[in-house]
Amino acid sequence: MGDAPFGYVNVFTSHVNVGFFHGAALPDPARLLQGTGKFMRHVKLRPGTTTNAAALSMLIDTAYSDIKARVENG
Questions:
Q1: pLDDT confidence of residue 1
Q2: Is there a domain that residue 32 lies in?
Q3: Which of 6, 26, 43, 53 is close enough to 67 for a disulfide, judged by CB 3.0 to 4.6 Å?
Q4: For residue 20, what pLDDT is reported?
């Protein structure tokens, strides 16, 4: 979203984090988000572990919409 990032991907030896800079403000009915920070949250993906792809996709879409609204509304 222009110069305003809404998410990130970190790759580790045993897992991948899909994170959101304003994740604490996102609705997460599937309870995928992890973390205790004031703003950021992430979803941890591990090989051999199933992930609710629909819920993750919804988080990504919602995070994009959230940052878009923040940018457009100042």
A1: 54
A2: yes
A3: 6
A4: 96
Does a structural domain hold residue 16? yes
Confidence of residue 2 (pLDDT cuts 50, 70, 90): low
Written as six digits, the tokens of 2 are: 């222009």
The DSSP output letter for 34 is: B
Say which amino acid occupies 72: E
> CA-to-CA distance for 26 and 34, rounded, in angstroms?
12
Under a CB-based contact definition with an 8 Å cutoff, are residues 3 and 25 in contact?
no
CA neighbor of 1 nearest in space, from 17, 21, 18, 16? 21
1 within domain boundaries: no
**Is 2 within the bounds of a domain?**
no
pTM, two decimal places: 0.89
> What DSSP element (H or E) covers 63?
helix 53-72
Q: Where are the beta strands (DSSP E) in 1-74?
A: 7-11, 16-20, 41-45
